[in-house]
Design brief:
The protein is α/β, with parallel strands linked by helices. The chain has one domain: 3-Layer(aba) Sandwich (Rossmann fold). The protein is 46% helix and 15% strand. The protein has 9 helices and 9 strands. The strands form 2 sheets. The chain has a 7-stranded parallel beta sheet, with helices on both faces.
Length: 267
């Protein structure tokens, strides 16, 4: 069994990764801003028993690392943990993130910069901290959580997710033949706290487009095992992304601006 470090591990997709990996017997390093909530999640996971391939059971080992990834000093602490040769990390899941419901012209610069620090800078810094050790050991994987939003216009969040996807593609190319892989997870709408925290009204959204976080993670881990660079959960969203990649930019812009459209900003 190996060790996985997961950012944004207390809720949503990050928490689903933590539970799925704990069930497989992986040791965990959980990173999140809310130290109290982080300890509660860690306690729950430590109390679980994970079956191994031999049919035996063992307690899940969980380390907590409270950190606000927008804070350079906190980010450096997480990077140092990833780079520690005496405590190797075999899987890095860059999941931490947040959104908001402001147009670019309405959002404050501090808020936009903070978003880039978490969604872009942290992914870059932590990937660079983890990869050298993985390459030296000849094994490992990086999962960067992107989004279907990466393929649509829509402000700083969408632009940041576009960067995550492109960065992961480049990283995967660089890592070819090393035994280390990089995968960009690009889910569509997932039932998590994300939209509520961003104050986005999603009541208009049809039930059929929502994904389950546990299923998203299970599909992603299967894609990681296959060495896939892009993991797009569900046939619905794979078809959506295929369509978006071939639409003219002008049409994409119209869809983004159209009131009530599928990519329009919500009040």
């Amino acid at each position: 069994m190996g060790t996985a470090l997961i950012t944004g591990a207390t809720a949503g997709i990050g928490n689903a990764f933590a539970r799925a990996l704990a069930a497989r017997g992986e040791s965990l390093v959980l990173v999140a801003r809310d130290a109290e909530r982080l300890e509660r999640v860690a306690a729950e996971l430590r109390g679980a028993q994970s079956g191994t391939a031999t049919g035996t059971e063992r307690r899940v080992e969980v380390e907590v690392l409270p950190a606000d990834l927008a804070d350079p000093e906190a980010l450096a602490r997480v990077a140092a943990r990833l780079a520690d040769p005496d405590r190797p990390v075999d899987l890095l899941v860059n999941n931490a993130g947040f959104g908001h419901n402001h147009a670019i012209a309405e959002a404050g610069l501090a808020e936009e910069t903070r978003m880039l620090d978490v969604l872009v800078r942290a992914v870059l810094v932590l990937s660079h901290a983890a990869v050298p050790g993985m390459v030296a050991r000849g094994r490992g994987a990086v999962v960067n959580v992107s989004s279907v939003a990466a393929f649509t216009p829509g402000g700083t969040y969408n632009a940041a997710k576009s960067w995550v996807s492109a960065f992961t593609w480049g990283l995967a190319i660089d890592l070819a033949g090393t035994g280390v892989t990089a995968t960009a997870l690009c889910p569509g709408l997932v039932r998590t706290e994300f939209h509520q925290r961003a104050q986005l009204d999603m009541s208009f959204t049809p039930r059929g487009v929502w994904l389950d976080a546990d299923r998203v993670v299970a599909d992603c881990l299967a894609d990681v095992a296959r060495g896939r660079v892009m993991s797009i959960p569900s046939r619905r969203y794979r078809l959506t992304v295929a369509l978006l990649r071939h639409l003219p930019l002008r049409l994409l812009g119209r869809l983004a601006r159209r009131p009530g459209g599928p990519f329009a900003r919500r009040p």
